[in-house]
Amino acid sequence: MIPLIRLEGVDVAVDGMTILRDLRWSLREREHWAVLGGNGSGKSTFLKFIRGEIAPAPGGAGRRVYGFDGKEQFTAVGIKERIALVSPELQTRCLTQEWNRTALQVIHSGFSGGDYVYRRLTQEQLKHARRIVKLLGVSDLVPRNAQELSTGELRKVLIARALAGSPQILVCDEVCDGLDAASRENLLSALNQVARTGTQLLLTTHRNEELIPAITHRLWFEGGRIVESGSLAAGCADRKAVPTKAMVKTELSEEKGVVKAGRLSDARTLIQIRRADVFLNERRVLRDINLEIKSGEHWAVLGPNGAGKSTLLKLILGDVHPALGGRVRRFEFTPKNTIWELKRRIGFISPELQSNYRDAVTGLQAIASGYFSSIGLMLKPSRRQMTEAARLARELGLGGLVEKSILQMSYGEFRRILLARALVQRPDLLICDEPFDGLDAGGRQEIAGTLEAAARSGTSLVLVTHHAADLPACLTHIIELMRGRVVFQDVMARHAHWRRRGKKNCQASS
């Protein structure tokens, strides 16, 4: 039987730059592949190419051949109906739609493959959608506005949307990013069940613990080339995850039983929140929040999807405001201070911010945009600002990225640029919403090293993550949210079980 997909020496170019070279690979029925490799190796481009979203590089002698229904096809016509893709780009598009849609409408749009529901669904389609909703455990999300869901909640809705069209192949690009531990377990279990029903999987991940039992083959990319391809049963070369520098430091801190918080008695208050409720579209998202962050403190913000973590970060930033009776004091500011003065004192990085950058600016220009808290360069930086931005880029080892267009960067490369953007004004407080998501082990190590260096230089950290193994060793305090309420808040040193959990997860993934 002919392969469903066959690549014969194909090159792939994006914006005139060759990203993938000499691809030779085939996908046969009942195979489920893990597509692996570091940031910038070409995995996401490969997935888009397989689905027909990108054509082979012009002038090449290679071929991309589809063999669905036992017939060879050399174009991508009709292929998207057979191959569903869930990716960070799809999530961005959903968030930037001008029309508001419920999560259920997003799921129903999967039957047509477009962004909206264009015709009345049949009773069978409605039943199929209900089965998928139950399988993925998103029943409580379906009536809500999709653009108000957390990153993890929307990710599960988009998986449900992809399955609505009953694809022959489901392509998942880092689908566990943004999910809490329970949601990751449920989603991976559901994907494993999907594989057993006959839908074939192509799955990318940077974490070995997310490789589900259904995976039968592994494809490894380095520098835009396939360097390993074969059956897991046949014994591919062992490429285990390498523990990050932050993880090693965490283990040393555990062994010594020390987490230094500095001389907090001499610390000044950076952020003080009292009795704060936050409503979004008449729905209470945060309830009775009380929090004080002082200089020299570094906070981990934990909790499941939908707990209110990202909203708490926006409350600190001043992007949302407490209801009547609540109060937020930021630094020594008074109501006379502007939001722009606040932004100069607080650096910020998040997947949402990353998705909003779509202009072809260089890495250095993106870093310099941090002076204006803008998406892209709305104003022209001064010579001094550009010099300082270039100096910071050198300090962080960004080298060749400063002149590169952000549109040509991998997800992990651009994440490092945005962290430099957040640090360019040497802020008093750095807020990081899931800074490690989408990064390989080396990328997580680099980000963790940068965060620890920022902490040593006097910048306080507030960090959200769903992976205990990613917690930097410099963190001093922990706050946990559940359904918009604070259920736990204390000094990290008194609760080493969080670090032991991280260490255990790190060892399991390696």
Structure description:
The protein is α/β, with parallel strands linked by helices. It has 2 domains: 5-231, Rossmann fold, CATH 3.40.50; 245-257 and 270-509, Rossmann fold (3-Layer(aba) Sandwich), CATH 3.40.50.300. Helices cover 32% and strands 23% of the residues. The chain contains 15 helices and 18 strands. It has a 6-stranded mixed β-sheet, sandwiched between helices. Helix 4 (123-136) packs antiparallel against helix 5 (151-164). It is globular. Residues 240-265 and 501-510 have low confidence and may be disordered.
Chart the SSEs and their pairings.
Elements: E1 5-14, E2 17-27, E3 33-37, H1 43-51, E4 63-66, E5 83-86, H2 88-95, H3 103-108, H4 123-136, H5 151-164, E6 169-173, H6 181-196, E7 200-204, E8 217-222, E9 225-231, H7 245-256, E10 269-280, E11 283-294, E12 298-302, H8 309-317, E13 327-330, H9 339-345, E14 346-349, H10 351-356, H11 363-368, H12 383-395, H13 411-423, E15 429-433, H14 441-456, E16 460-464, E17 477-482, E18 485-491, H15 497-509
Parallel strand pairs: 3-7, 3-8, 5-6, 6-7, 12-16, 12-17, 14-15, 15-16
Antiparallel strand pairs: 1-2, 1-4, 8-9, 10-11, 10-13, 17-18
Helix pairs in contact: 4-5, 7-15, 13-14
